[in-house]
Amino acid sequence: MSRSRGSEWLQGLKESAAGIEVLRSLWPRAFPEKGHLVRPLSSGLVGPIAERTGWSHRYTRGVLQGWKQRRAYCEAVLQYDHRWNLDGEEIADAAVEEGSREQARRQLAAIAARRLRAEQRTAQAALGVAHAGRSEEPAQHHTPL
Please, are residues 20 and 62 in contact by the beta-carbon 8 Å criterion? Predict the structure, then answer.
């Protein structure tokens, strides 16, 4: 993969939040805002999406990768047996493969690990603030004579 090809995909991935908003405006049933409405998408969508948006195929793949890495999408891959098209219609002969389910499980584990690390950093920062408010020297206690 050449540098420009890889960077185009990476650019799509980095800009996926904005790209997904474009996709939502064109296909709201395929890219819903509410997580419980997300469904696994059928393959072969890169061409139609690129054609409609004017994006390159590589950029489109990057944007779609950002969508597929979301928790709601991974959960949908595990929950549903079939895939959906851009119109939000189930495709009876497009099954969700076990490889896709395994990839979704790995992504959900990675999301959970990142969340745990963030919570740990927040807790450590809170402890640091609490300790910073205390004096470095022990308090002097006066004992009655």
Answer: no
